[in-house]
Amino acid sequence: MDNSSYLQSFYDPYVYQTLQSVTGNQVTVQTTQGSVRGKLTNVLPDHIVVEMNNTPFFIRTQQIVWVFPSS
Q1: Domains of the chain (ranges plus CATH)?
Q2: Chain centre distance of CA 43
Q3: CB-hemisphere CA count at 13 Å for 37?
Q4: Residue 28 forms beta bridges with which residues?
Q5: What would the DSSP string read from start to end of 5-51?
Q6: What's the rounded Cα separation, in Å, for the pair 2 and 21?
Q7: What are 4-28's pLDDT values in tens digits?
Q8: Which pTM value belongs to this model?
């Protein structure tokens, strides 16, 4: 093994599928750094985009503790 660094990313298909099912809805996302509440606008295998007050927040999937739909 050489000394070059690399990024290892894990993909959880169950979390990805669940997040896709609530795309377009208001959600609350608890991360390791705090919570974000807004519209879930995009879901990709490595991150999600939550828009709050017209500002997009890009959240790494690995940093998500829990998510629930909110009103």
Answers
A1: 13-69 (2.30.30.100)
A2: 7
A3: 5
A4: 37, 68
A5: --------HHHHHHHHHTTTSEEEEEETTEEEEEEEEEE-SSEEEEE
A6: 41
A7: 776 666 778 899 999 999 999 999 9
A8: 0.83
